[in-house]
Amino acid sequence: MDQPLSRQDYLQKILLARIYDLAKITPLQHLDRLSERLGCKVLLKREDYQQIHAFKIRGAYNRILSLTEEERARGVITASAGNHAQGVALSARKLGMRAVIVMPTTTPDLKIEAVRRLGAEIVLQGDSFNEAYDFARSKAAAEGMAMIPPYDDPDVIAGQGTIAHEIIGQCNSVDTIFVQIGGGGLAAGVAVFVKALLPEIKVVGVEAEGSASMKAAFEAGGPVDIGYVSHFADGVAVSLAGTETYRVLRDCLDDIVTCSNDEICAAMKDIFDDTRAIAEPSGALSLAGLKKYVTLHGSQGGTHVAILSGANVKFHTLRTVAERCDVGENLEGILSVEIPEVRGSFRNFCEAIGERHVTEFSYRLSDASHARVLASIELSEGRREISEVASSLKRHGYLVTDLTMDSMAKDHVRYMVGGHPQQRVNERLYLFEFPETRNALTRFLETLGDMFSITLFHFRIAGLEYCSVLCGFDVSENEEGLELFLRKIGYTFTEVTSNTAYQQFLR
């Protein structure tokens, strides 16, 4: 059995990586506005300058370069619907090799075409990444092709580690490097290089709250499958951390911080404000972690580096980002308020708010005595201020609920109209993840058949690989059939019948 690579082994592999006839040395850019706001020096490593607008070209190319001539002649294969697929395709084209990319059948046409334009063969297989990956492994074994893993491989890790080599050469003094974690290849490469050469520099991993598989691995003492993951930051949407990446990061990582989708949106806005670059959500994740860590630990005055790992964002995702970035920056709060159903109540409510700017106000008559409104309030002093607003409204006699951190309220309820049902129904409410394909809704409805009635339905296309769908069912006459339907449809789901926003506005 081969011995695990040491820090020095990895250092040598990174220093000897010969990737620059395809990959670029990317700039390290000072973020003027954010630095001034945080009271420290913030630098951004611009991996969006790569030909595929993402860092993945480094690891993919380094792994393919390690193949023998005989292995290259048989071609390479991988499973990916994202930046790794483009990295493998471009690397293979550079070397004149055959490349096969296996993608789930749910992959949007935009991503398929992006890889096809680079000359790779596309195979659509399975409804999930795991199914596509298993098929790619079996095809690789059957045809003798070399499998190019997206992260859990020493040559891939070493390729990504060249980013750290560049950072050290581009900045005289670095206190902390923040690096996003999905499967862990980028973080492992950066962390092992830094700790082998300059161990006094801190390396902090950053995960999305909805896909924190490496944090779960640290807590469990090894990789564990966390099951459902959020796909907002789809570049890091990994449910199971890599075995080798876990081993390296367990040894070399100083800390892990997790960030919400709202915090990621705020970081995307910060990048745009300082650079006019539009990062993908996973690309901005490390900066979101930097901001959170500096604020929590009072790390003012130092020099901190974040990695813009990619900029392959679908345009319609920006609608969600624009709506959520102020909440992520604590510049907006969302309140549910019950007001009396009398003339002048709206005016009285605004007077109770005071001089603060109301950025959104949704109202519907509920009954003869009262109404429930959803109001967004512009803030200047952060989360503490929304508590003060709520307290002020309560002193004026209003019933108030803070929904600022309620994802379902922000994703669905704020856009819905119609109020409470007038007839009694035994309603159960679920959040589904639909693959963003044309037949996803048709499949849902055909599987449902006439088992029970849909009482509520809402989704908005957000430019992501998956679409969040809120659906209510009247199970008055067939409650046991619901479990059968949920198993049969196969979409990821969460029951949210007890959600506060739903109970107040729609129940």
List the helices and strands and how they pair.
Layout: H1 7-15, E1 28-30, H2 32-38, E2 41-46, H3 56-65, H4 69-74, E3 76-79, H5 83-94, E4 99-103, H6 109-116, E5 121-124, H7 129-143, E6 146-147, H8 154-170, E7 176-180, H9 185-197, E8 202-208, H10 213-220, H11 243-252, E9 255-259, H12 261-275, H13 281-297, E10 303-308, H14 317-328, E11 332-340, H15 345-353, E12 358-365, E13 370-378, H16 383-395, E14 399-402, H17 407-411, E15 427-435, H18 440-448, E16 453-459, E17 466-474, H19 479-489, E18 492-495, H20 500-505
Parallel strand pairs: 2-10, 3-4, 3-6, 4-5, 7-8, 7-10, 8-9
Antiparallel strand pairs: 1-2, 11-13, 11-14, 12-13, 15-17, 15-18, 16-17
Provide a short characterization of the protein structure:
Helices cover 42% and strands 21% of the residues.
Description of the molecule:
The protein has 507 residues and is α/β, with parallel strands linked by helices. It has 4 domains: 7-50 and 153-322, Rossmann fold (3-Layer(aba) Sandwich); 57-147, Rossmann fold; 330-405, Alpha-Beta Plaits (2-Layer Sandwich); 421-505, Alpha-Beta Plaits. It is 42% helix and 21% strand. It has 20 helices and 18 strands. It has helices at 7-15, 32-38, 56-65, 69-74, 83-94, 109-116, 129-143, 154-170, 185-197, 213-220, 243-252, 261-275, 281-297, 317-328, 345-353, 383-395, 407-411, 440-448, 479-489, 500-505, and strands at 28-30, 41-46, 76-79, 99-103, 121-124, 146-147, 176-180, 202-208, 255-259, 303-308, 332-340, 358-365, 370-378, 399-402, 427-435, 453-459, 466-474, 492-495. Strand 7 (176-180), helix 9 and strand 8 form a beta-alpha-beta unit. Helix 3 packs across helix 8 (154-170), helix 9 runs parallel beside helix 11 and helix 12 (261-275) packs across helix 14. The mean pLDDT is 88.
